[in-house]
Design goal:
Elements (H helix, E strand, L loop, with lengths): L5 H15 L8 H14 L5 H10 L4 H10 L10 H18 L7 E4 L5 H14 L10 E5 L2 H9 L1 E3 L8 H7 E4 L3 E4 L1 H4 L2 E5 L13 E6 L8 H13 L1 E9 L13 E4 L2 E3 L2
Helix pairs in contact: 2-4, 5-6
C-alpha cells in the first residue's frame, strides 16, 4: 500500500488549510491515506508527491474537487441537535413573523452536506406559517464545498430508515415513496432550498442581502482559532440586526472574540 511521508502529509495539509480552512493534524495521516488511496491507484500515481503536483497543475479544478470530496466527512442526519430546530421554530420564527413586514425571510445553511438540515428548516417553516406561507418569500440558501454531497442533496432521496425519526405528519405530508426502501421529498419542499457550491474560505462573500439566520453547525471544528474568528466576523457582517447564528454543540465562540451575543449553547444573536 502507498504510504504518505511526513513531508507529503505536510504539503497536502498546508494546501487543504490554505484553500479550504480545514486544519488536518498529524493524527489524521492514516485517514488521509485511506481516503485518497484509490484516487492514487486509479490514476497510476506512484507517490503522494506526484498526486500533489497533479493537483497543483490541474487547471480544470476537478483534481481539487475530488480531493475535498474525499477529505470532508459530511456526517449528518435529520434533526441533528434537535433543540436548535425547536428554538428556531418557537423563538426565531415567532420573532421574525412579527418584525418582517415585507415577509422576506432569508436563511443560510452553510455547510449543508446532503441536505438534511436545510430540508428540515424548510419543513419547519412550511408547518409554522401554514396557510400564510404563500405570502412569504422564505427560500433557504444551502451551500457546501463538496459537489458530491450537493448532488445527493438536490435529489432529496432518503432511505426510510433515515427519515424514521421524523414527525409522522412530516413523513405523510412532505415525502412520497420512492421504491420499497426510499422516500423522496415533495417538490413543494425541494423547491424551497437553493443549492450552491461555495467555499467559506473565499475572501469575498457574494451575497447582496443579509440573513436573518445562519446555520453553520459542526463545520468550524475543522478550523483553527484564527480561521474561525475571521469566518465568524464575516457571518456577523452578513447577519441582519436581530438575526441568529447557530453553530454545533461541540463548538463555542470566545465571547471576547465575537460581536454576537450568547443566547444559549451554540446559539448567538446580533443585537
Amino acid at each position: 500500500m502507498l504510504k504518505i511521508t511526513n513531508k507529503e502529509f505536510e504539503q497536502l495539509a498546508a494546501y487543504i488549510k490554505a484553500n479550504y480552512g480545514i486544519n488536518l493534524k498529524e493524527e489524521k495521516k492514516a485517514l488521509v491515506t485511506g481516503r485518497l488511496y484509490n484516487v492514487l491507484i486509479q490514476n497510476n500515481f506512484t507517490s503522494f508527491s506526484e498526486y500533489y503536483e497533479y493537483i497543483l497543475l490541474d487547471k480544470t479544478g476537478e483534481a481539487a474537487a475530488t480531493l475535498i470530496n474525499k477529505i470532508t466527512t459530511n456526517h449528518t442526519f435529520f434533526m441533528r441537535e434537535a433543540d436548535h430546530f425547536s428554538y428556531f421554530r418557537d423563538k426565531v420564527l415567532t420573532y421574525l413573523r412579527s418584525v418582517l413586514k415585507d415577509k422576506d425571510l432569508r436563511i443560510w445553511s452553510a455547510g449543508c452536506s446532503t441536505g438534511e438540515e436545510p430540508y428540515a428548516l424548510a419543513m419547519i417553516i412550511d408547518e409554522f406559517f401554514g396557510k400564510e406561507k404563500n405570502y412569504w418569500d422564505s427560500k433557504i440558501l444551502a451551500t457546501d464545498i463538496s459537489s458530491k454531497v450537493l448532488e445527493t442533496a438536490t435529489k432529496a432521496i432518503y432511505s426510510n430508515e433515515e427519515i424514521a425519526a421524523l414527525p409522522s405528519n412530516w413523513k405523510l405530508n412532505y415525502f412520497k415513496k420512492n421504491g420499497d426502501k426510499d422516500s423522496v421529498l415533495i417538490d413543494k419542499i425541494r423547491n424551497e432550498v437553493i443549492y450552491r457550491k461555495f467555499n467559506l474560505m473565499d475572501e469575498v462573500f457574494p451575497f447582496k442581502r443579509k440573513f436573518h439566520g445562519i446555520f453553520c453547525r459542526n463545520v468550524m471544528i475543522y478550523f483553527d482559532a484564527q480561521t474561525k474568528r475571521k469566518l465568524v466576523n464575516k457571518f456577523y457582517d452578513l447577519t441582519e440586526r436581530g438575526g441568529y447564528l447557530f453553530i454545533g454543540h461541540s463548538e463555542s465562540l470566545i465571547r471576547e472574540d465575537t460581536r454576537y451575543k450568547y443566547v444559549m449553547p451554540a446559539v448567538y444573536r446580533k443585537e
